[in-house]
Design goal:
2 domains; alpha+beta; four-stranded mixed beta sheet; globular; Glutathione S-transferase Yfyf (Class Pi), Chain A, domain 2; Glutaredoxin; 4 strands; single chain
């Protein structure tokens, strides 16, 4: 059985967890919170979350590495298209969402989620990056079924993890959901949220959020 190390409020932990659920693989969750303690650094030397234990003394870190490992070792159901170009397009979409939406939006999180503040300069800079990324995503993806066609892929799993957080952060900081400029994105995400695996994940996220401030430091 796999052991997934991390915590339920981490986007990347949740992406790996969702992958395990979609592939119907048995796994155990092991709660790990930053900062990394010495015993965890033996498993994940950079202290990165998630960390997947794939066997006694065998660990993998870096989300994309873990996802590719799961696809290679458990090819059904397939979450990459069969053809090389199709697989590359899935990875391309994942990188765009990660680098130009999720990562820049993190700079808004102090104000959006933690009662802090961000400077006007940061707000304007991040908004420019996010607006450009939204325009790019609209050009690159389809929202009438799944991002790359009629079949669920890794890109869709990444989307249902990352895009709602970006949407919420922009609503709270800018007073508007910047992703709402993409036609069809709201209905697309609603369809993904209806998947039993996504509902299971979201229930765990909600429980973790309610307990976050109860956790001892």
């Amino acid at each position: 059985m796999y052991k997934l190390h991390g915590f339920a409020l981490s986007n990347y932990y949740n992406l790996v967890k969702l992958a395990l659920l979609e592939k119907a693989l048995p796994f155990e969750e092991v709660a790990v919170f930053p900062p990394a303690k010495p015993d965890f650094l033996q498993k994940s030397p950079m202290g990165k979350i998630p960390c997947l234990e794939v066997g006694t003394g065998r660990y993998l870190t870096e989300t994309q590495v873990i996802l590719d490992y799961l696809e290679e070792t458990h090819p059904e159901p397939a979450l990459y298209p069969e053809d090389p170009f199709g697989r590359a397009k899935v990875r391309e979409l994942m990188r765009v969402m990660e680098l130009y939406l999720e990562l820049p939006a993190r700079r808004l999180y102090p104000a959006a989620f933690f009662g802090g503040a961000v400077s006007e300069e940061t707000r304007n800079e991040v908004r420019g990056v996010l607006e450009k990324a939204c325009d790019a995503l609209q050009k690159m993806a389809h929202f009438d079924a799944y991002l790359t066609g009629d079949t669920l892929t890794w890109a869709d799993l990444a989307a249902v993890i990352h895009l709602p957080v970006v949407s919420l952060a922009t609503r709270r900081v800018y007073g508007e959901n910047l992703l709402a400029t993409i036609p069809g994105v709201a209905d697309y995400l609603e369809r993904l949220r209806a998947r039993p695996t996504v509902q299971t994940l979201q229930e765990a996220q909600n429980r973790a959020a309610s307990q976050m401030f109860k956790r001892p430091s």
